[in-house]
Amino acid sequence: MNKNSENISGWKKFMKSLTKAHELGTEEDIMLDHDYDGIRELDNVLPPWWLYGFYITIAMSIFYIFQVFYNPENYSQSNEYATEVAEGKAEVEAYKAANPQLFDDSNIVAFTDEANIAKGKELFTSKTCFACHLADLGGSIGPNLTDNHWVLGGGVKNIYNTISNGGRPGKGMIAWETTITREERIQLASYIISMQGSAPAAPKAAEGDIIWPAQ
Ligand code: HEC
Q1: End-to-end CA distance of the chain
Q2: Residue 38 domain flag
Q3: Within-domain flag for 44
Q4: For residues 12 and 211, what is the distance between their CA atoms, to the nearest angstrom?
Q5: Is the C or the N end of the chain the one with fewer CB within 10 Å?
């Protein structure tokens, strides 16, 4: 017998020990006496693989019962949920505290870098602002955005506020809060600020009593 066949017989033995299957041809030894309308029954043992699996589930269920109902930490799904939600909220708060300029409108600062200004310019076209303020911001339906006169206030916070919440009722400047993201509204405001003092082709006469920067 070479090593290979030894292995095979070892494997076979192991498989047999898992099932304890009765040898074929010797069924008579375990045949039960009953005869159900000609159908007879073998008294096979439960296969050990199945039986031990069953014992493991019993052990698991006992462990589980203690874990769920007698755990000193009062474990339950609702507690676990509440804990995780609290952890999540704490993380959000920590992030907000670390990045106030992203969430708190009173902390808004205008972008001055080229990429964000360019994005603001692009948005001014893609979000149709140019239709009322003109592409060079000279103004038509909406006021000239390049002069230092403001109806609703200049500076990044006021401009951001106007873009977010709109102008006076009935004037045509809607609130963009729901259609333009917060960052994009800051980019738009920054672009408008970057255009202060530029010379549009046909500037609309100054509107608004607010002079900005305030004098
Ligand atoms: C349908 C026309 C229309 C569109 C589109 C429009 N606006 Fe206006 N905008 C107006 C009008 C009209 C006003 C003046 C509101 C008022 O008098 O209360 C205004 C006011 C403003 C002001 C304040 C000006 C001031 O003097 O205080 C800013 C800033 C502004 N718009 C930016 C934008 C931006 C950015 C967009 C694109 C997202 C945009 N607008 C799109 C019509 C428009």
Answers
A1: 105
A2: no
A3: no
A4: 94
A5: C
Of all protein residues, whose CA lies closest to atom 2 belonging to ligand 1?
Answer: 132
Question: What pLDDT does residue 61 have?
Answer: 96
**Per the domain annotation, does 30 fall within a domain?**
no
**Centre of ligand 1 from the C-alpha of residue 210, in Å:** 15
| Total-model pTM | 0.66
Residues contacting ligand 1 via CB (< 6 Å)? 127-129, 131-133, 141-143, 145, 150-152, 159, 162-163, 167-168, 171-173, 176, 188, 192, 208
Domains identified in the chain, total number: 1
Residue 173 falls within a domain, yes or no?
Answer: yes
Ligand 1 center from residue 122 Cα (angstroms): 16
Ligand 1 pocket test: pick from 125, 127, 132 the residue with the most ligand atoms within 8 Å of its Cβ: 132
CA distances to 101, 132, 170, 185, 191 from 120, in Å: 18, 16, 26, 8, 5
Q: Looking at ligand 1, which residue's alpha carbon is closest to its atom 5?
A: 129
Residue 112 structural domain: 108-211
Q: Residue 133: give its domain's CATH number.
A: 1.10.760.10
d(CA 192, CA 170): 23
Q: How confident is the model at residue 5 (pLDDT cuts 50, 70, 90)?
A: low
The answer on pLDDT for 135 being more than 60 is yes
- Mean pLDDT computed over every residue of the chain: 90
pLDDT above 60: residue 1: no
Ligand 1 mutation pick, 119, 124, 125, 133, max ligand atoms within 8 A of CB: 133
